[in-house]
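re: the backbone from monday

yeah here it is again, tokenized this time
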């Protein structure tokens, strides 16, 4: 199941316009420079059974003097409204695409760095605005810097109601959807190519389980590549 992340600050990107190309060449994306940096991402995936997709995955904006924060490919997009030390809380929004269907989820997230920049705990509680049910995802990520690259790996547990599981990839399998939850694992390697381009390779393994913990459906493995392009925004200071 792929999640498409759309940042809540998207209207600011549209209103600001693109920075001039010559400014980008001269100034680069130096964190010391004023202004804002936007990041757009696109992913290509191959899933179990031969399913393929090319989807927009990231629209994000941050101040130029702030480092790019860690994010896993399966994160919903969140807006940090409350921050207290290593804890962050705020609203979240997410598009899901599975089995030829789109679902728009909205809700909230909370994130806690148990070990600064190394171990992240995250919870998302989302509900489909189109009536497709709700779900809660608990996750953790161990983050490892590898020279200029960043690797991460971590488990997930997704609990949902009957309507939610009817909108997931399992709908093409004739399995019962009651008392269902997902055990998942995500491995990620993000490599910066230059100041403006980064490539992320990821592997998402998803195991549907019944209420008694027994496997209840086909295991799905998704391999993907995400391409993120960053650029400076003009008109925002």
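seq for it, each position gets an aa:
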């Amino acid at each position: 199941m792929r999640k498409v992340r759309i940042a809540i600050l998207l209207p600011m990107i549209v209103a600001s316009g693109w920075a001039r190309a010559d400014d980008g060449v001269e100034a680069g994306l130096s964190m010391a420079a004023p202004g804002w940096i936007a990041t757009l991402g696109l992913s290509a995936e191959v899933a179990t059974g031969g399913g393929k997709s090319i989807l927009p995955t990231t629209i994000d904006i941050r101040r130029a003097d702030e480092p790019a924060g860690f994010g896993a490919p399966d994160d919903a997009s969140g807006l940090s409204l409350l921050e207290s030390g290593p804890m962050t809380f705020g609203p979240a929004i997410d598009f899901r695409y599975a089995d030829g269907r789109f679902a728009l989820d909205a809700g909230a997230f909370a994130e806690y760095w148990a070990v600064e920049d190394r171990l992240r705990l995250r919870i998302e509680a989302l509900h489909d605005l189109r009536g497709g049910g709700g779900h809660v995802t608990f996750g953790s990520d161990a983050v490892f810097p590898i020279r200029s690259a960043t690797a991460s790996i971590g488990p997930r547990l997704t609990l949902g109601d009957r309507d939610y599981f009817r909108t997931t990839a399992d709908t093409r399998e004739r399995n019962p959807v009651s008392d269902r939850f997902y055990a998942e694992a995500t491995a990620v390697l993000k490599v910066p190519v230059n100041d403006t381009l980064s490539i992320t390779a990821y592997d998402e393994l998803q195991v549907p389980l019944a209420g008694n913990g027994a496997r209840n459906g086909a295991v799905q493995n998704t391999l993907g590549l995400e391409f993120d392009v960053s650029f400076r925004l003009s008109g925002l200071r």
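Helices lie at 10-16, 21-27, 162-166. Confidence is low (pLDDT under 50) at residues 1-27.
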